[in-house]
């Protein structure tokens, strides 16, 4: 539960804290994956409630701007006087220790500088569906609406292009750090790629390519880190790296050029303002590259762009005219693309291009991915001669793919029983497509086949994927439609269910489902709420189609829901 709560905080941009007299649940253990956003927990005191952990997590995510994004509302303690004696335990502090902790938390909130509404009035509102509630919350309601509306205007509506570009730079840096933390295996391959780049000396284009789900993004993050370190007589590279999947807006080629312009300006300040139009940005990029290389001849520059074949123009069409035909001496442009993509085939024809296929994982690399992937959660597979569980997994046909191994580790961590681990490993599907189908079948049992078939069928037929809020809306719509027996719903029924769903999925349930989906489709890092669930891997997409689109009728229904 702690991981679920804190992961939701990590993906939030505003924080509302409502404090009464109860301190809240204090978890007996805080088992969290070793991700950068949770590093602070190693220094946190034990005995903190989930509520206080959420507050601290948000401050950690926005160390410089948290006070402008956090809003606290402290209920008047006089409210308890209106509560019947039989219900007061539901509102009063759990114990003397809890009362002391809550008083201390409120003191720190009041002195933090965050906007705080103190002692808002409320009163006993009776019992509804067996649960006590409060009423007289008009002051509270107005304060929340005013604070949030003001924050929305300040943080999002009034942003200019410069602040938008700065926000994208921050997203890129956070995303790269998260990918570097996931770097497991292929260390020798990373060193080999860095060696090839250093050996060329003069620079030039390098083309990294592999299939979807085979780890090129993590590889590019590791390569960026490797190039920053000096090697022998070769100086360290000045490295600029950009990831097309860091956020939904990262796929826009204008965002790439804006980020490049900002990064180049940091290295060589300019007197003129940053350009705005695509053509201006493109011309500026080529010019600034030359200027920078003339000014800084001693240190080579490496520009890494991951997912170059995913970049799109304003109309959503693939674009590659930003890639220079000729690079200044000392500049290396490293592009990662999907094997056999149109861009890979086009760039491979250029004489100066150095191809670098990643290929399949070696056995030691596979072993490292599994061991470190399970160790994050304090788990491991035996590799003893008499019970080599690790070897059983690594001999699976799909284990040459990082995505297969990560999904297998998630399956074993979440559902395998220690005493039956041998059976679980032996029955684990051997290919990525079969493993995804196995996981989808389990999800249908957990959440309901009819519910998932509609929503995930719509995800499968979508061209650009679905944002979290879109997937949530689809699930609520499908849950509403599932309560109506009879024939296939008409268009008007679907529209009513979309606009006013009668049933909603609890957010805790949805968050668990979303987290599982992220692992399944190979998007282990989704922090931006506008990021999309996309079925980029062909094997994953085929598995979804077999599960949710077995007929033309199911496909028609999926398009109707979408």
Textual characterization of the structure:
- The chain is α/β, with parallel strands linked by helices.
- It is 49% helix and 11% strand.
- It contains 22 helices and twelve strands.
- The strands form four sheets. Strands 7-8-9-6-10 form a five-stranded parallel sheet, sandwiched between helices. Strands 1-2-3 form a three-stranded parallel sheet, with helices on both faces.
- Strand 2, helix 4 (96-110) and strand 3 (115-120) form a beta-alpha-beta unit.
- The protein is globular and about 80 Å long.
- The protein starts with a helix and ends with a helix.
Brief write-up:
The chain is an alpha/beta fold.
Question: Any chance you could write out the topology, listing elements then pairs?
Answer:
Elements: H1 2-10, E1 15-19, H2 50-61, H3 66-69, E2 70-75, H4 96-110, E3 115-120, E4 123-128, E5 131-135, H5 138-157, H6 161-181, H7 187-200, E6 203-210, H8 216-227, E7 238-243, H9 253-267, H10 278-295, E8 301-306, E9 331-338, H11 342-348, E10 354-357, H12 363-375, H13 389-394, H14 402-415, H15 421-427, H16 432-447, H17 449-461, E11 466-467, H18 468-482, H19 491-499, H20 507-521, E12 532-533, H21 538-548, H22 552-561
Parallel strand pairs: 1-2, 2-3, 6-9, 6-10, 7-8, 8-9
Antiparallel strand pairs: 4-5, 11-12
Helix pairs in contact: 1-2, 6-8, 6-9, 7-8, 9-10, 12-14, 14-16, 14-20, 16-17, 16-21, 17-18, 17-21, 17-22, 18-19
